């Protein structure tokens, strides 16, 4: 399919079958409706509090109220941290019994331990109001069913509750998890095109000079957008002309990956993006392009990924495979046009500055889309206008937020409809993100472990990733190593522990234990064995995969993961299979003895 053509641009919508599984009912008065809608909107606001502090993840917020008064709130800070529901009931304490919990989205039972559901049930919550069902098929409806099986009343917007006020609340719930919804529906990350232009539609002068079109206040908003993104994409022209750094510049928290798209790899040998000390950089290019520069970039720590034919759609599918939820495009018109044409841009943020620079050949934010009539123009929906300093921010959706309210059939339903279709044919089980079906196998899963230190004293670690990263610095007689150990151990999330451990390893290799390369496999295995021995349900899950190959599906960690095309060593998957064999042999011996 050509990236830019003469025909009007069209977008493929996800194929969904509309059906409802429960009758509509509304059990609240008009006054109560407004209050409950406000509490649901508050749950969506709370869910968004982690933005910029951790990498994009499904946003969960929980608000517990009695007679309309909030008594407890919580939100998921990062994957692998305490769930929103548990935080809220802990804050509510004894007042939670008989209260109502408001959730922007159905909880995800990612770890096979039902923490979100059990915390609400054990606290005595009598009713749960949910904004939307979980969009991922393997999690959809499970928490709702579990709560109802515990005699908890569950009301879902659009199914059990309907009114104008609830429609507005539902919109808030959809917006806060728009990246997850787009990813689930289209199998690409949620993509935002951002640009700043003058009042006459120019993004630079005829000479290419563009610093600065927008105000400092607007540029601050751009840093916020970056902090909400897994990756930032620019083209080769942007690197050559502007030499950007593309950091979030918020003094900590999540740092997105920088991605440069260049077909010919006609890029400078030196650029700010080639410094990967603070942020990772990926260059995507056409297969075989400029091998000399590829080697130079690899030596600097820049990852180069080749495509047979470089185009935005394939790059976004690659980002999807890497687990990205949200991508920010900060490119010029030459790249933004094919990105729009290929249907991977979902939302636009346009900062319009009250300036005029003119110039027939001055670049505009979007190149040729092949349109010859105004009837072919792409109309934005849900358009917003906001004054940002002296500038005007206009934002809207090129593709509306996917409506995933229809029930997606479960594996059991599929088998009932067509007995010849089996979802269990495959012998390969992949895991990567904690919200995957086997997310409990991830180092990031929130299962604390207790491990003995070199003196025989037992320490509690929030996750396996905390333990693994901190042990890079054990036994090194250096104050910086001891400080690195403590910083990593006390990190707020496994994501932050990983980021700290890797950063300190790069910046201060002298504080990393000399035997790390030979010791890290044993350290990982000890942590795995402790985790799966401590939690019986995890051990049972692991043993249930007997006969299947386990693959850690990280596309970029070629040691612990399987890589993008199976080129990785998959050591984590192999260690899990080794541990599974041990457990099964122990079980077999026990059965023989008994």
From TrEMBL:
Gene3D superfamilies named in the record: Cytidine Deaminase, domain 2 (3.40.140.10), Dihydrofolate Reductase, subunit A (3.40.430.10), YbiA-like (1.10.357.40)
UniProt catalytic activity: 5-amino-6-(5-phospho-D-ribosylamino)uracil + H2O = 5,6-diaminouracil + D-ribose 5-phosphate; 2,5-diamino-6-hydroxy-4-(5-phosphoribosylamino)-pyrimidine + H2O = 2,5,6-triamino-4-hydroxypyrimidine + D-ribose 5-phosphate
Domain CMP/dCMP-type deaminase: 34-155
Listed InterPro entries: CMP_dCMP_dom, Cytidine_deaminase-like, DHFR-like_dom_sf, Eubact_RibD, NADAR, RibD_C, RibDG_C, Riboflavin_Biosynth_HTPR
UniProt cross-references to CDD domains, sorted A to Z: NADAR (cd15457)
Pathway this chain belongs to: Cofactor biosynthesis; riboflavin biosynthesis; 5-amino-6-(D-ribitylamino)uracil from GTP: step 3/4
EC number in record: 1.1.1.193
Superkingdom: Eukaryota
Any coiled-coil regions, as ranges: none
GO biological process assignments: carbohydrate derivative metabolic process; riboflavin biosynthetic process
GO molecular function: 5-amino-6-(5-phosphoribosylamino)uracil reductase activity; diaminohydroxyphosphoribosylaminopyrimidine deaminase activity; hydrolase activity, hydrolyzing N-glycosyl compounds; NADP binding
Keywords, in A-Z order: Glycosidase, Hydrolase, Multifunctional enzyme, NADP, Oxidoreductase
Protein name stated in the entry: 5-amino-6-(5-phosphoribosylamino)uracil reductase
Naturally occurring in which organism (per UniProt): Ensete ventricosum (Abyssinian banana)
